[in-house]
Amino acid sequence: MTAAHLAALPTLLAENPLLGHHDVIPYHLIRAEHVEPAIEHVIQTNLRQLAQLLPEQLVAPTWEGLVRPLEDMHQRLLAVLQPEQLLSRHQHLAVIDAYARCRDRVQAYELAIKHNRTVHAVLQLLQQSPQALDFDPTQQAALSHALRASRLAGVGTQPSIQKRIGRLQMELAGLYQTFADNLSAASEAGALAFDNETALAGIAPAVLASMALCAREAGQSGWRLPLELPLVLAVLSQAHDRALREQVYRAFYTQASEQGPQAGTYDNGPVLQRILAARAELAEAGGYRSYASLAQATRMFDEAADVEQLLLQLIDKVRPAAQAEFAPLQELAALFGVPALQPWDCNYYQEKYLQIHHGVTELKVREYFPVQAVLDGLQRLLEQLFDVQWLQCPPAPRQPASVHLIQLSEQGQVLGHIYLDLHTRPKKRAGAWMEALRDRHRFADGRLQLPIAHVGCDFAADTPAFPCLLSLGDIQTFFHELGHALHHVLTRIDHGSVSGIKGVAEDAVELPSGVFEHWAMQPEVLQSMSRHHRTGEAIGTAFVERALAAQARFRAQALLWQLEYALVDYRLHSHSDTLSAQQIGEQVLEQTQIVRHPPYVRWLNTFAHLFTGADYAAGYYSYVWAQVLAAHLFARFKREGLFSSQVGGDFERLILASGGTRPFAELVESFAGSEAGIEALLLDLGIKT
């Protein structure tokens, strides 16, 4: 910091919105000049507090003297750092640059805390003390997780090994950011422009309106197709021009690679190879056979090999069903002069098949689901199931009009907040996600910090001619991400490291989302949140049942796709051979894909789940495992009542509210009455076991 900055520091700190205690993050008050002073102030305050408490705790460690202050320190830093996650979606570029300048400082501090041998030793003393026998489940889980984290960081190993682990973790943090930056830049640079409406024949008017809006926002005429999955899938499903579909497919699946129209620009190939190598080195330094084995330390499965066994067992059951689904598509395509379906044909002929055989098109279904009607229906569902009230808060200054802040409460008691950021904007991240912006935590002074979650989607923005209309797939996606948010916000645990989604086994964190997806597939639920955007009518029973049957028509193919990706992920992180990531992926897909993709496809180069963080590394199978668990749990709702407040209350108490305080397998069995197996999922798919 400059001398001028240092002189102004007391005033900056006193007026800094990042350092205040706010129920809702005051995004509109945050300026670039607030960021560095706030981060440095919290880091220095934490280091001073740590230096004061460790000597005393080395003699007689206690929960109140050690574990709670450590978590208080962590939560204070998160309160300063986490606003960046939503600010970055709103193009506060100067603020984002200020955070970026502090990134190395924060990473160095976090690694120093994680690798602190004295902290680890005192935590061990506390765990071995007589008082630990009387700890409640929250205290036991928090202490156990803290010790596990330090062990995984190499604390307790030789100093040289610990330093090596620290260097690798620091390198990986930088590589994750590089991968994300490359992907964002490639997506922006690769957007396709069209000036001939005839070539866009078949594409729905609402989709064309969104593409025209994207063009205007970019200062262009005609139509612009950002390389964002919802719009890309819409074009691949609707465009009659086969050459155009192939053009879009090639552009999307060669992003950030050495192939395609942007060949060599923002290439993530070398980045992901180094990520995989660094992860393998990290596992070796920690004494694990592979990174997949290391990753199981924070997951439900005891052995990495059990994951591969699950995936292969499901592939064996699901692939024949997927082949049976595909056969009539090929027959239909042949009638239209396409003797061999290519990947860019599949969505298009699926849509044609559904229109011919089910009398349903996605466009007609969308007309009944404007986004506001879905939100209204969701509000009623939450109140019926969990007795949770949903209140939309007034918009804050400088907040995009499409972003809504929702307050959740129960019997007059506020539980937390959720930001709903559902629509595309220029430079907004593509995809769908949930981020925890704040954890539920009670500080040493008694102050209770309530949780805040952020749900992001990339649904088409409203246009003057069309409101945002959701497909059944969009509704499932939204329910999926909202399941994450509710898991985080409806927690009743008051210690941040094990509240909400924190401390939950990483391969169980998708379970609540999977259960909410099931509600999005129930006719009664869909009817309750339908309202035709022109007439206001609810969707008819017969039509919604046909629409759901149509959506389920290709479920085996969709599950096979996830199984393929999960198996590739597992093999990438469990084999130490000399093959490249691309070659390992091709080996798997050659045995599993129904329609082989072209050699130029580089889907791994955009696989953000695997390469922008560690949460899903060797863990993409979590999505499949969540479907297994969700089908098992939702069977109880089917037996006892879809809208049963008793079953909903049990689900909230056991699954949503418990955080990471109990083993998830135990919670699943308590709710469902039995251990989970694949039978319920296969039954849903109509596959005989």
Describe this structure in words.
This protein is an alpha+beta fold and 689 residues long. Among the domains are: 3-156, Neurolysin, domain 3 (Orthogonal Bundle); 190-253, no CATH class. Helices cover 57% and strands 7% of the residues. Strands 3-4-5-9-6 form a 5-stranded mixed beta sheet. A two-stranded antiparallel ribbon has the order 1-2. Helix 7 (117-128) runs antiparallel to helix 8 and helix 15 (304-335) packs across helix 23 (555-572). The longest helix is centred in the middle third of the chain and has 32 residues, at 304-335. The mean pLDDT is 92.
Key terms for this structure?
single chain, 689 residues, alpha+beta, Neurolysin, domain 3, five-stranded mixed beta sheet, two-stranded antiparallel sheet, 9 strands, 57% helix, oligopeptidase A, hydrolase, zinc
List the helices and strands and how they pair.
Blueprint: H1 3-7, H2 9-14, H3 32-59, H4 63-81, H5 83-87, H6 93-114, H7 117-128, H8 137-152, H9 159-189, E1 192-194, H10 205-217, E2 223-225, H11 229-238, H12 242-253, H13 269-285, H14 291-295, H15 304-335, H16 343-358, H17 362-366, H18 371-386, E3 389-392, E4 403-410, E5 413-423, E6 433-438, E7 441-442, E8 448-449, E9 452-459, H19 472-489, H20 511-519, H21 523-528, H22 541-552, H23 555-572, H24 581-592, H25 608-611, H26 622-640, H27 645-656, H28 664-672, H29 679-685
Parallel strand pairs: 5-9
Antiparallel strand pairs: 1-2, 3-4, 4-5, 6-9, 7-8
Helix pairs in contact: 3-4, 3-6, 7-8, 9-13, 11-12, 11-16, 15-16, 15-23, 19-20, 20-26, 23-24, 26-29, 27-28
